[in-house]
Amino acid sequence: MLAVCQFAYAQEEKLPAKETTATPKTDSKDSKPKVERDFKPSAVNVGMEAIGLGRTAISSGFTQLEAQADIDFDRYFFVVDLGHERNSIANDEFNYSNKGNYIRMGVQVNMMPYNPDRNFFFFGFRYARSNFSDEIQYTGDFDKWGQKSISLANNGVSARWYEMTMGLKVKVFERLYFGYTLRYKIGKKMTGFDELTPRNIPGFGRADKNSNAGFNYYLLYNIPFRNKPIPKKPKRVFRERSDSTPSNQSLPSNSFQNRF
Question: Which of 245, 205, 256, 213 is nearest to 13 (CA)?
Fold first, then answer.
C-alpha cells in the first residue's frame, strides 16, 4: 500500500502545470470615438412662411409676411425671422386695427446631423420682439351729448417674449426644402400703451394671454458657400480588459490527496 502511494506522488510531481489564461471581457461602458467638428459655415437657408401668405390671399382683414434665414455652425443653426403683420376687425360696434413688425432670433440644434439629404429635426430657443401701433373707433351713447364717436390709439407699443421651438425640415427637390416649426411662446412683456389695451401683438398673438402656441410652415432654399461633406455616424467601440482573476488555475503540486 505504501508503495502505491509513493508511485502516485511521483506521478503527480511529473504532471505539467496548466497555463493560466486571461479571459478578455468587454467593459460595461462603451466609448465613442472623438468626432471632428466643423464649425465653419457652409450654407444659408432662406425662405418664406406659407400659412401667413395663404391667409393674406384669402382674407381682406389680415396680412402677414414673414421671411426666415438660418446659417449653420456644425450641428447648430443661428436663425432669424423677420415679419410684418396687419390685422383689422370691423363690426357694428367698433373698428379695430393693428399693424407692426416683429423679429425672432435664436439657436436651434440639429438632431439628425448624419442624414444624407441634410434633412433635420431640431429643438431650439428664440428671443422675439415686436413694435406696433393700434387704434379703435366706436360710437358711445351719452346722456348729455347723445351718440358720440370715440377714437383711441397707441403709437410705439413694444413687446418681447421667448419661444421654445421644435420642428422638421425635409428636402423635396435639389436644394428646395419644406419644413414646419412648433412654437411655445412665454414670458410676454408689453409696454408703451395708454388707455387702449392692445388686442393683438404681431408675431405673438392675443395680447391678453401670457403664453401662446404657434405653428408655421416654411418653404426654404439652400444656398451653399462651400462643399461640406456629410459627417459619418461614429461607430461604438468596445474596450477590452483582462479579468484580474484567471478563469483556469493550475492545481497545486501536493493536491494528489484530493484524488482519493
Answer: 256
